[in-house]
Amino acid sequence: MVSDSLHLIETWLATHAPRILHVSLNPGASEEALAALEKVLGRPLPDDYKALYRWHNGLDEEVENFGNFVYGLSFLPLEEVAANFHSRTQHTEAVPLEHTTAEVRADHVLNPYWLSLGFDGSHAWLYVDLDPTPAGTYGQVIFLDEVEETAFLVADSVTSLLTGFAQDLQQGLYSLNPDALEEDDNEFLAPDPTIDLVNWYNASRWQSVPRP
């Protein structure tokens, strides 16, 4: 269950990265905010997606501790999710991707129904996919590497994503970036190279993804 995974994640953060938990993460989103996003999209939000945002509405990048979340990516608040959706609906000319797995549509890199969940600040995105192929699942989580023009399935749901995150934390596959700690006293998660999604090309977890 989502609640079980969120409890494990919160417990780990409280012990190992309390400033991410208490400073970086925003308070939970209101039911009104979730309903407003759902109305804008014209599509239902998955229940586990709503549960995640009720827990915390993304990260505040303006506070003292510049934190991050699953796979070392940002965790975008609903306001940014909605803004990205509006921006993408303006791009009516489809720009196809070169490489995708069977669950992910390849026809448009700016598919507005890929809800922005995480970002590395450069070229890598984590999305909740409300427009999968027939081989996929509504609400699946996908990764986009803009440089490699590649997108692939990461988890079949937000629930699965959070379950995996909690397990990885408990198995010691995350640490605090030592440079961030030394320079700014900043708690910033560094995923182990074996699971590093941004550098998926070299990570053993993602070796089954077809290479460009």
What keyword list fits this structure?
212 residues, 7 helices, two-stranded antiparallel ribbon
Describe the structure.
There is one protein chain. This protein is an alpha+beta fold. The protein contains 7 helices and 7 strands. The strands form 2 sheets. It has a 5-stranded mixed beta sheet with strand order 1-5-4-3-2. A two-stranded antiparallel ribbon has the order 6-7. β2 and β3 (124-129) form a beta hairpin. α1 (2-16) packs across α2 (18-24), α1 runs parallel beside α6 and α3 (31-41) runs parallel beside α5 (78-89). The mean pLDDT is 94.
SSE layout:
Layout: H1 2-16, H2 18-24, H3 31-41, H4 47-55, H5 78-89, E1 99-100, E2 114-119, E3 124-129, E4 140-145, E5 150-155, H6 158-170, E6 174-176, H7 178-184, E7 189-191
Parallel strand pairs: 1-5
Antiparallel strand pairs: 2-3, 3-4, 4-5, 6-7
Helix pairs in contact: 1-2, 1-6, 3-5
